[in-house]
Amino acid sequence: MHQFGFIAIFMVLAVLVPVSMLLIPYALTLAGIKPHRPDKVKNDTYECGVRTVGGSWVRFNFRYYYFALSFLIFDVEAVFLFPWAVHARQLHWFGFGAVLVFVAIITVGLAYEWRKKALEWK
Amino acid sequence: MAVSALATGCQPPGFFDGQNLWHEWVVNFFPRIGDSICRGMGGHADGGPPNWLIYLVLGFLGSLIVVNIAALGVPFVVLLERKLLGRFQNRIGPNRVGPFGLLQPVADALKLMTKEDITPAAADKIVFALAPLAFAIPIILMFAPIPWADHASLANLDIGILWVIAVTTAAEAGIFMAGWSSNNKYSLFGAMRAVALLVSYEIPLVLSLLGVVLLAGTLNLSEIVLDQRFAPNILWQPLGFFVFIIAVSAELNRAPFDQLEAESELVSGFHTEYSGMKWAMVQLGEYAALIGFSAIIATLFLSGWKGPLWIPGYIWLVTKMAFILCAFIWVRATIPRMRIDQIMAFGWKFLLPLSIINIFATAAEVIAFPDALPYWLIPINIAFAGACVVGMAKLLGFQPKTRKIVIPGRPVIGDDTPGRIVPLMRGGN
Lengths: 122, 429
Known about the structure:
The structure holds 2 protein chains of 2 kinds.
Chain A: H1 3-30, H2 65-86, H3 88-115
Helix pairs in contact in A: 2-3
Chain B: H1 22-27, H2 29-40, H3 51-88, H4 104-114, H5 125-141, H6 160-181, H7 185-216, H8 221-227, H9 233-236, H10 238-251, H11 263-266, H12 276-301, H13 313-334, H14 340-368, H15 377-396
Helix pairs in contact in B: 3-4, 3-12, 3-13, 4-12, 5-6, 5-12, 6-7, 7-10, 7-14, 10-14, 12-13, 14-15
């Protein structure tokens, strides 16, 4: 477990370094080296140089809905497969057969999805 | 005992074969540093500082080295990419600042630091400021379990692979935060595409890793390297390598899968509104992920720090990483960007079945030869991988299409007459 202590120290440093990198420009602004002159046009949302029409926090048709559902299923499958992969030698052909059946059930689902054209980006 | 922090901690005397020779220092550079810090603090003597203090100092110094590999490696990878892209496009690339343009990263850093930071008035300011951090921090964390040489990973995690996958996936939240908080339509599209890409390519990525896990029987990255003492995993796992490297380039949002930044249509997607140091942070995350994943690919498939000659392990690892980086850049310069529907179809209909086939082929091999795989399996594996890729492509009806361009009075471009090559760009076709 003491390896995770190193991870904890690393996490502190991994947070501190980017945060301090973002603080450098702030300090440079205070020192007057970096300009800070916001105006209305500059702070406008970029849209090819024309004035922005409407916001973007609207109801949005995200098309990967079915993909996200299948992603959940396959990700859970992968979580189950990792312990088997570590011990595949000891579990021998019985484990192989069990996992084959498990994956086959999910793959049939994938084939059904494919057949029903749920894997098309519409 | 698995001790780490780029070091072995205070190893008992005699852990390293040989004496305090200089070449032994070079080979075991990282463990030696940790060892001498430990000894210098009096780790073995009675009445020395308490163990937790040594632990903290070792962890801190090791973390400092690894953070710097990530943060200082990035500008030079950017320079390498610009140089190589220049060469690929028949240009010279950056060559003005310093000898051969080597000081370009320094100039870039200075420019980005002194550039005005613009936050759009319509943006969600807090999320907008936090997003680059949420993107860069997990990417830096991914470097923790990578073994740089023998006994030289920051944390010798037993779940090293899972840690890398978990942490790099968390970075996707940063991309979505950036895209959503900008309140810009391009950024929102980019963020949506990023999530679509993530859900499609995470599965082949994870499943193609399973082949390596099956071979090694462990999730520990150092032990996976040690397991490749006979031959690198790419020879046993050609299909897994093929799927993994494609899935990684999609996870890294690199060409040909960079639909979420797509300069020509989304104006760099989720970081359209970013400028100055926040933009640099996004860039840091992207290129640090590139470095980290090339280290992971080298570790998992190209036998990591192990090499045939008497050369220090970290030099082997960096050499292999450089090859993989150049391959990624080559791919970026060569292959045009795919459409988003093509990308999704490619992930789900091509890579996912291939990775499932790979798992069971590898599992059958491993169970049939539990001690060590025989060498005659290598050509069989490579032939099997080639047959799978070609067969799957035929099954799905992927065909290399040639398009004829006929202009009256000019030679025909793209006709399939054998032995006739019509240059496209030169001579004004």
